[in-house]
UniProtKB/TrEMBL annotation:
<dbReference type="InterPro" id="IPR011705">
    <property type="entry name" value="BACK"/>
</dbReference>
<dbReference type="Pfam" id="PF00651">
    <property type="entry name" value="BTB"/>
</dbReference>
<feature type="domain" description="BTB">
    <location>
        <begin position="150"/>
        <end position="219"/>
    </location>
</feature>
<dbReference type="GO" id="GO:0010114">
    <property type="term" value="P:response to red light"/>
</dbReference>
<dbReference type="Pfam" id="PF07707">
    <property type="entry name" value="BACK"/>
</dbReference>
<dbReference type="GO" id="GO:0016567">
    <property type="term" value="P:protein ubiquitination"/>
</dbReference>
<comment type="function">
    <text>May act as a substrate-specific adapter of an E3 ubiquitin-protein ligase complex (CUL3-RBX1-BTB) which mediates the ubiquitination and subsequent proteasomal degradation of target proteins.</text>
</comment>
<dbReference type="GO" id="GO:0005634">
    <property type="term" value="C:nucleus"/>
</dbReference>
<comment type="pathway">
    <text>Protein modification; protein ubiquitination.</text>
</comment>
<dbReference type="InterPro" id="IPR011333">
    <property type="entry name" value="SKP1/BTB/POZ_sf"/>
</dbReference>
<dbReference type="InterPro" id="IPR000210">
    <property type="entry name" value="BTB/POZ_dom"/>
</dbReference>
<protein>
    <recommendedName>
        <fullName>BTB domain-containing protein</fullName>
    </recommendedName>
</protein>
<dbReference type="InterPro" id="IPR045890">
    <property type="entry name" value="POB1-like"/>
</dbReference>
<keyword id="KW-0833">Ubl conjugation pathway</keyword>
């Protein structure tokens, strides 16, 4: 009879590099067999897992077995993370005591991977231990073992679970390394695993998942606990499972902010990225119109601010408004100048699209103390170089960063359309202003909408464009209108000569449409209800003379009258 040679499960040479990928041996998303029947059954187990339950620090204890809300969970989890390093030190001291006082047993082992990784110890089986093979509960047989640690770390109770090392090793690199390190410890039957009381239920759920590929818990707080423990023991398939269940639950601002505040080791894991992305999208969509939720957004933590202001669909008046808002937020949350400069340099600065700010505001960036003296000139210079580029080059730069998490050159959906301004001081004060509108933006104006430009200045006065869809009173059809308004209100008067022009086919040159002069007073505007003298349907037609590659190009020349 031919004997089949089965490769050693724990021989590292039999594990290919690809096995450690998301679709590999650890945490494959493919359909996996259900070994739930074998969980904690001595008939199908080759090892005994001894789970030592240690007390949480007083600050992290909750009123019940589980947190009553996500907010409570977040507060408790934050404290646990802050205390984790101290607790790991205690566990390491515990190992040294064990090694010193129990010379007949095998030395304890510590496996460290990341800040929140688990600590496990493997030891030989005591000769006087009697176990109920299918018991999950307190183990009085290890009283002597626990008493060794009472001066260092109190053990509340011990849970005994029968495990199959191949099943656990196939799902977790942590357990794989634990059982296959090549030392004598890896051959021992008893494995000691210290965990906090707050992690006990989550660890049992995790172990059950590694057998059955499913979880019985469905509450957000319980799933988050399992997710944290799954990260601790490197069970990527369970992290994906928890992430998927959490994404399917109704998202709230509270839960979205909590997901984004998970430890960096959890948040950066590939298995959790879809959950983090969903949280960012939820916040970006909810606070899309920042002006409606200014107070709420002003109270958001840094992670929430990054989610909202990294969005391309953010509805703000202009990028100048983004700069002003983030400056206000930073001064509120980081009152110390040194901290504020650091957060602008590392986190907030990348949210501002400086190339789309006005030159007047860029000048203020150069003199703003909240920015590091070396950073401000760099971002302003980059913005000015972008503004000097041709439209084709600007579009190319924007497309190059289409997949980047933080964009600088891509234009947002500003409520006030950006303008380009060329100013002259001599022989007369004059400016030439350019504004482009996409066909889609014009289509949204029908039947009675309007869109405003960003402000521009001439002779110390602020002006703006407004494009409208009007009903022509004489001909009774809709048409495109363009107006020029002055920002200042009150008794101010200002006389200008003006000329409106637009690019037109076939030459695609700017063709003058109207010119005239007007003496502005505060809050007044001048313009033409039917700039092109044609109905709206003709203006928007596919063969329209005024849309060049889907863009309407408008120009206005303003000169201060002597």
């Amino acid at each position: 009879m031919r004997v089949l040679k089965v490769p050693d499960l724990f021989d590292l040479s039999t594990i290919m590099v690809s096995d450690f990928s998301p679709g590999g041996a650890f945490g494959s998303d493919t359909t996996e067999p259900d070994f739930g029947f074998a969980f904690n059954d001595s008939n199908f187990s080759d090892r005994v897992l001894r789970i030592e339950i240690m007390p949480d620090s007083p600050e992290t204890k909750s009123d019940g077995d589980c947190c009553s809300s996500i907010a409570v969970w977040a507060r408790n989890r934050k404290r646990r993370r802050e205390d984790f390093k101290k607790e790991i030190d205690v566990v390491q001291r515990q190992e040294q005591v064990l090694n010193f006082n129990v010379p007949d047993t095998v030395d304890g082992l510590t496996y460290e991977n990341r800040d929140d990784d688990a600590v496990a110890m493997i030891e030989g089986s005591p000769s006087d231990v009697g176990l109920n093979c299918n018991q999950i509960g307190n183990d009085t047989a290890y009283d002597n073992y626990s008493s060794l640690n009472k001066d260092h770390l109190t053990v509340l109770r011990v849970n005994i679970i029968h495990i199959s090392s191949p099943i656990l090793a196939a799902k977790s690199p942590f357990f794989y390394k634990l059982f296959s390190n090549g030392m004598t410890e890896s051959e021992q039957r008893y494995v000691t695993l210290p965990v906090h009381a707050s992690e006990e239920a989550a660890l049992l759920d995790l172990l059950n998942f590694m057998y059955s590929n499913t979880l019985s818990t469905t509450t957000p707080t319980a799933l988050l606990d399992v997710l944290m423990v799954a990260d601790k023991f490197e069970v990527a398939s369970c992290m994906r499972y928890c992430s998927r269940l959490l994404r399917n639950l109704p998202m709230t601002c509270e839960s979205a902010l909590l997901y984004l505040d998970l430890p960096s080791t959890v948040l950066m894991a590939d298995a959790v990225q879809p959950l983090a992305d969903a949280a960012k999208q939820f916040l970006a969509a909810k606070y899309k119109d920042v002006t409606k939720f200014q107070d709420e957004v002003l109270n958001l933590p840094l992670a929430g601010i990054e989610a909202v202001f990294s969005s391309d669909d953010l509805q703000v008046a202009s990028e100048d408004a983004v700069y002003d808002f983030l400056l206000k937020w930073a001064r509120t949350h980081y009152p110390k100048l040194e901290e504020r400069r650091r957060v602008f340099a590392t986190r907030l600065g990348r949210l501002i699209r400086f190339p789309h700010m006005t030159c007047r505001k860029l000048k203020k960036v150069l003199t703003c103390n909240d920015f590091d003296a070396e950073i401000a000139p760099k971002v302003v210079l980059e913005a000015l170089f972008f503004k000097a580029e041709t439209p084709h080059k600007q579009r190319a730069l924007a497309s190059e960063e289409a997949n980047a998490p933080y964009r600088h050159f891509l234009e947002r959906a500003y409520k006030y359309r950006p303008v380009k301004v060329v100013e002259f001081e001599k022989p007369r004060q004059q400016c030439v202003v350019y504004m482009d509108l996409k066909r889609e933006e014009c289509a949204h104006l029908f039947p009675g909408g309007k869109v405003y430009s960003q402000a521009f200045h001439l002779g110390g006065q602020g002006f703006f464009f407004s494009a409208h869809c009007h009903m022509d009173q004489q001909s009774s059809f809709h048409c495109f209108g363009l107006f020029l308004g002055m920002q200042e209100k009150g008794p101010v008067t200002f006389a200008v000569d003006y000329e409106f022009a637009a690019r037109s086919k076939p030459t695609e040159d700017y063709i003058s449409k109207y010119k005239g002069n007007y003496t502005f007073t505060g809050g007044k505007a001048v313009g033409y209800r039917n700039l092109f003298g044609i109905p709206w349907t003709t203006f928007m037609a596919d063969d329209s003379n005024y849309f060049i590659n889907g863009v309407l190009h408008l120009r206005a020349e303003l000169t201060v009258r002597q």
